[in-house]
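Quick one from the shared queue. A colleague (R.T.) flagged Reticulon-like protein as missing a structural entry in our internal table.

Convert sequence to structure tokens.
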Amino acid sequence: MKLGDLVYWKDVKKSGVVFGVGLVLLLSFACCSIISVIAYSSLAVLLGTFSFRVYKNILQAVQKTSEGHPFDEYLKWEVQPSKEKVHEFVDIILEHFNQTVVKLRDLFLVQDIFDSIKFGVFLWSLTYIGAWFNGITVLILAFISVFSLPKLYEMNKTQVDQYLQLACTHIQELISTVKAKIPFPAARKDKSQ
């Protein structure tokens, strides 16, 4: 199943399980340490699998059948990734990392003044978000948004697109007004040529 199918709730059961488990984990991280969450989650899984194994063994003994290990099909799964897959994954991560580092270098060293100003405004707004919310709270809100906003947009696409177009028009007008009133070196070079 693809991520898009999950967030658009194509299969309600699978989306519900992923959403529920993810939200419970994030809420657990909000109130407990990561070590405690991992330990308690692992204990719960171990207790469940152990109980199921004992139950199946008792059932086989009472019915005098020999079905074998109840998790036999899962024990046959190949859990070690191939070297090629690992290299492919690392290459993708490295490519994204390098692009991010180059972009951050350009933003911090003010290669493009407008991009750096936008980045500064973004960082400034993050200071307010950081004052209002804890990091895990932002993750919880983002997780809930990922599972709710795409479906809401799909259901109300025409109205949302209409208001987004209106907002984009106003933003473009504001940017062009600011560019016209503030003389930047790049604007002077264009006029002199």
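The chain is about 80% helix and 0% strand.
The mean pLDDT is 90.
Added to the table.
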